[in-house]
Amino acid sequence: MDGGRFSARKFARDLRKAPSRLRSRLSNYRFYAYLAVLGPGMIAANAGNDASGIATYSSVGAEFGYSLLWVFLPMAVALIIVQEMCVRMGVVTGQGLADLIREQFGVRWTAVIMLALLIANTGVIISEFVGIAQASELFGIPRYFTIPLTAGVIWWLVVKGSQKRVERVFLVMSLVFLTYIAAAYLAQPSWEAVGHGFTRPQLSSQSNYLFMVMALIGTTITPFMQVFVQSSVVEKGMDDEDLPLVRADVVVGTLFSLTIAAFIVISAAATLHSNGIFAIDSAATAAEAFEPVAGVYAKYLFAVGLFGAAMLAMGVLPLATAYSLSEALGFEKGLSRSFREAPIFLGIFTALIIVGALVALIPGIPQIRLLLVTQSVNGLLLPIILIAIVKLSSNKEIMGERANGPAFKIVAWLLTAVIASLSLALIGKTVADIFAK
Predict the structure, then answer these.
(1) Quick count: other Cβ atoms within 10 Å of Cβ 66?
(2) What is the DSSP letter of 362?
(3) How many helices (H) and strands (E) does the chain have?
(4) Surface-to-core class of residue 189, CB atoms within 10 Å of its CB (0-12 exposed, 13-18 middle, 19+ buried)
(5) For residue range 269-291, what is the model confidence (pLDDT) as tens digits?
(6) pLDDT tens digits along 145-162
(7) Which of 233, 217, 222 is nearest to 117 (CA)?
(8) Across the strands, what pairs with 81?
């Protein structure tokens, strides 16, 4: 081990050389090595299953049943590729994404990207607090109690805790998503239909169908996730020998996250679509619709999942924003820093928590319209971020031998073109719907 950290290469070398009686022990060390690295990929992917994500997945299940489950398979591949490039850049360069963008593309482009990210993330942070309020109100607890309490808990955890403690709490929060698997089983779906949904794509040219496909991708691959995962890898001090385990973290996190998302679609398809409920306006509405079909326990399981998802995203989103702005401006950053050491980083985080909580306390806040606006900003920003990620990770001056190879580069650019086209189409549809009302 180097510097007290686990090294994937050393484990592999020792495992080959060791006598058979020691191989099981070294295998256990390898498992512990993964646990030591586990975090950034798992947390970033699960933060994508936030309140707005749950609303999107529920809407997909309500309107189209199981027929869009096949989309999760290419989405898993796409998210793994994008996040792998980010963690590889973090490991090789020791710099966050905003750091590299500023150095390679200049201050002006960085300022535009960071401003868009700030606007989009602020809107989504507000929606997460609204999700907290909706989930608590399903249990009869008023938002005027839960929003200040949860805001205070998240602020205290991040500002007063260490990097390891924050990461461990976020990982524990990710376990709350298991409630959606339980809710799906209580809903008693047709597992044969679920299998057909994954393996027999039903393509359609209907505008609503295409819109939902685009919404799924836009919900799953978002700019803040890429910023957070790269900055987290850098802060953990991962080096080249840790890269195999960091990649494993990305793969495991993505598969876990999208499995949960698929179970949300399955839950909604079994309870809502199967009973003639084809439209919902929020994740809370979906939870309430569960009770008459699958029972009160399914409703509460869904609500607990919504609360936990909003809590996780409520911590990750402000952190991703604080990371990106601090990196872009060249200020000190890090979860292990005090306010005196990193006033800008922790100040941005604190301000976003306060703004999000205060706006969410306003009665009748138009959550759906807010999400439409932030979704449009994220849709414009995502192609720019993806282009920057592919260019940076393909640059041999930056990445050396870890730069994208020819085949990987072709796949990455093709993926970027497809996602960019879908994002722009989603924006066009969203703007057209806004002016049509």
Answers:
(1) 28
(2) S
(3) 20, 0
(4) buried
(5) 988 888 777 777 666 777 776 66
(6) 999 999 999 999 888 877
(7) 222
(8) none
